[in-house]
Every structure is written in structure tokens, then in C-alpha cells.
């Protein structure tokens, strides 16, 4: 978009790296989807139905067949940068595709969360119908300018999370900056408290309140990092050291090496670190020093958890002392 192009003039490094992140690639349009270009024909049989995703040039088609009849649906909306699910439109209705692509296979399998759906006929086998409210949530997180005044506005939609998605007011700031006025710059998110940042990121990644109110339980909640982080014993909403952005720069790709997070852990758990808040008496104490190691902290205290389908693995952000054989903590 024009706004993002203009942002490069002052914020060159971040503006160029952010579009390549998983958030920047959270939604792809036809012809701009490397996942399907690299996998031009995908097929899987689930019960009596066969699902096929075929790509020819810039066009991809999702189809489901019962052996007698086939329903083809063109793919317009590709959700996800690695694992990928498709939002489909047929006869004026929106559907979440019954199957998704998982790089770990690599291939198709049931969409996470939809494994227990029992379609009664071929039309239902396409996927789970989603109402307008859920559609707005999907596009509101995976795209930018998709929802205006509470309404879906496909004509203004831009794929992925762009600058203004997180930094509201960049358009006004851009206009003012041309006249040498920089006072309208969006608020610096780095100055927000850990709790505010958790709620901010949780708008898409799910807040603690959202998960609790919806009664979501079990290993599927490992996907909701703000919720899991808030459950941590060491979470202090007033301490910037436990903020989402203390560990993750949203403008660059996620660091996958465990040791890269050691400085953030040792910011609290080292002899020279400032004290942390002690609950419930609200006194300041020094965080405990790990007796086992001073490196690769997250490899023990933030375990990797596979979703029930076994195709996706997430780092559990509920920081804790993990005991062998213990059930997944909610």
C-alpha cells in the first residue's frame, strides 16, 4: 500500500523486514501464494470424501468429491504463511475449509479445531460455515483495512498485517510529516505496560480474558500466547521485562534458536537483575536463579507442545518448572 511504501523513507529497515514476517504474510491473494505454487496438486481422502487443491498459474481451486459428484470452489483467500487454511465463498456463504495444508506432512489434513465435524452430505463437507461476525475476526487479524466501521470492506483490504494495522494513525502522521509536522506520530508501543501489550497483541493472539470467557481448555490453548504468558507465575503486568515485545520484535522473523532468548530470561533470573514483584504480598524479591543451567532456558521452562493432530508445534508461553508426566496446565 501507499502508506507502507512511504513509511520506508523514514523507517527503512523495519518497513522492509516486516512484510517478510509470518504476520506480514498472514494472508495471501491468488497468484501470490508460494505455498500452493510449490504444491500445485494436493489431495487427501477423509471418510467418504476426497479433497483436492489444484493450482494452475495464478488460480487455485479447492474441491470435494463423494465419488459421484464434485463441488469445485475457487480459492480467493489464503490464510497462513506456513500452515494454510482457506476461506471459501459459495452461494453467498463463507466457509472455513474442512482441510488445511500442513508443511510438516507436507499435505492436507483436517483443519485444526474442525476434526470432529460430521458432514451429512457433500455440501456440508466443503467446510464449516462461518457467520459474518467470525469472518470479520478472521480478516481483521490476517489482513489490514478489511473492516471499516464494523463492516467488511473487501475493496480496501490489503493482505497481511501492515504498518497501520498495529500503528493506528499512520496515514495522518504521513500526511503531516510531508509538512514537517511529526507531532501526530502514533503512540510508541514500547512505552506500554506488559499487561497493555499482552492485551494489545491478544486482539489477534487471544487475551487471557477471551480464552477464559470462551471456556477454551486443553492443548489447543497453547496457540494463544498472551493467555499462556499471563498464566505464568512470573507474569507481572507492570514489569516491562515480561512483555511480549521484550522477547519478540514484530518487525523481524521469529527467532527459532532457544539460546537467543537467554538474555531476556536472565534479565530477571540472574544475581545482578533488579528484583521482581512477589505475590501475594507485593514485596520486591530477587527472582530465583535456576540451579540446572544458565543457557537454553526456554528449552526446559517453555516446552514445545504438539497440537492433537500432531502437525503443528507451538512453544508454550506459560513459563514454569515442567515436571515429567504432568498434565497440560490450563
Number of strands: 19
Strand order of the largest sheet: 1-6-7-8-11
Radius of gyration: 22 Å
Low-confidence regions: none
**Oligomerization:** single chain
* Biggest beta sheet summary: 5 strands, antiparallel
Helix content: 25-40%
Distance from first to last alpha carbon: 41 Å
The helix tally amounts to 13
How would you concisely characterize the structure shown here?
With about 325 residues, this protein is an alpha+beta fold. It has helices spanning about 1-5, 10-15, 35-40, 120-125, 130-140, 165, 170-175, 195-205, 210-215, 225-230, 245, 260-265, 295-300, and strands at about 25-30, 40-45, 50-55, 60-65, 70-75, 75-80, 85-90, 95, 100, 105-110, 125-130, 145, 145-150, 150, 160, 275-280, 285, 305, 315. The model has no long low-confidence stretch (mean pLDDT about 90).
Descriptive account of the structure:
The chain has 330 residues and is an alpha+beta fold. The chain has helices at 2-7, 12-17, 34-38, 122-125, 132-142, 163-166, 170-177, 194-205, 208-213, 225-231, 244-247, 262-266, 297-301; strands at 27-28, 41-46, 49-56, 59-65, 70-74, 77-79, 85-90, 93-97, 99-102, 107-110, 127-130, 143-144, 147-148, 151-152, 158-159, 276-278, 283-285, 304-306, 313-315. The protein has a 5-stranded antiparallel beta sheet with strand order 1-6-7-8-11. A 4-stranded antiparallel beta sheet has the order 2-3-4-5. A two-stranded antiparallel sheet has the order 9-10. The longest helix has 12 residues, at 194-205. The two termini are 41 Å apart.
